[in-house]
Amino acid sequence: MEYWLHILVLIGIYAIAALALNLVAGYAGLLSMAHAAFYGVGAYVVALLGLKLGLPFWLSIVCAASVTSLLGFIASLALLRVHDDHFVLVTFGLQLIATGLMTNWIAATNGPMGLPGIPQPILFGFSFDTHWRFLALTWSFATVAFAFCRCLVRAPFGRVLRAIREDEVFAQAMGKNVTNYKVTVFVVAAALVSIAGGLYASYTTFIDPTSFTIQESIFLLAIVIVGGAGNLWGSILGAAILVAAPELLRFVGLPSSVAANVRQILYGTLLVIVMLFRPRGLLGEFDFRDK
Q: Are 240 and 11 spatial neighbours (Cβ–Cβ below 8 Å)?
């Protein structure tokens, strides 16, 4: 039972991260490969503030969102100069830079040795130190994140994002400040994914740079694509499928060394099948082949 609760917690965390990426990739059509970087920054900020300063969880989360918002704003200014394939390459480069900093900035991140002993959340004197409690906390955050994103994409802001995705020149011709909308959605998504990172750090109580590499960015993007880009429910479904499906390999009895490689094969197979038979994702409205 504890094992399945663990899986549900991870699904909730990845659902929040995928919702954030879906705003950028699914609704605005900006294919970002750097969201694991913001995910990692959120995790490290929460971990360091809890370990070094003893700040409460809620304040650490607020600080993490603030820091990543600022970093997202700075990154978006550089990204505004490029489009389409070049945008993907620049975000890829930003992700590699972030991973390098996490690995080599020993004074802050402890490098490859990671940060152990991260305190678990305590809110209003209530400690979330069991799987049941953390599950409730995670899905509370996921519910709020979903409601926030739903309001955002149903508002005029969301309609402008779709217009930018479909035809940026037309959106600009209609008097919309495309630059402001792109910067805003990137900042919002960076802040939101940092919350997922903070939850991950507090749940596992240990983080290291290997959790926030380019492979993690690809995994987050795969969740969005499989579930359906441009559909918030797709982010939830994609997280459930890609987090839970590989865990079934545990029941096959494969050695751990083999299971890790088979997991990657399974991810790739799922992506190929979805792209062949459901190119818009299982629930999505946007086809990346149109870009």
A: yes
Domain regions of the chain by residue span: 2-211
The one-letter code for the residue type at 2 is E
* DSSP state, residue 120: P
Long-range contacts of 132-138 (CB under 8 A, 24+ apart): 132/5, 134/9, 134/203, 135/5, 135/8, 135/9, 135/12, 137/199, 138/9, 138/12, 138/13, 138/199, 138/203
Q: How many C-alpha atoms does 47 have within 13 Å on its Cβ side?
A: 26
Which residues touch 288 (CB under 8 Å, ≥6 apart)? 31, 225, 229, 279
CA 142 – CA 116 distance, rounded (Å): 25
Q: pLDDT (tens digit, 9 = 90+) per residue, 219-253?
A: 999 999 999 988 999 999 999 999 988 777 766 66
pLDDT tens for 197-216 read 999 999 999 999 999 999 99
What residues have CB less than 8 Å from 19, skipping those under 6 apart? 142, 145, 146, 149, 192, 232, 235, 236
Whole-number Å distance between alpha carbons of 96 and 75: 13
Residue linked to tokens 């059509």: 29
Alpha helices in the chain (DSSP H): 2-22, 35-48, 57-79, 84-104, 106-109, 131-154, 156-166, 168-173, 178-204, 214-227, 232-244, 256-277
Q: Which residues of the chain have pLDDT under 50?
A: 289-290
Dihedral angle of Cα 223, 88, 194, 171, to the nearest 10 degrees? -90
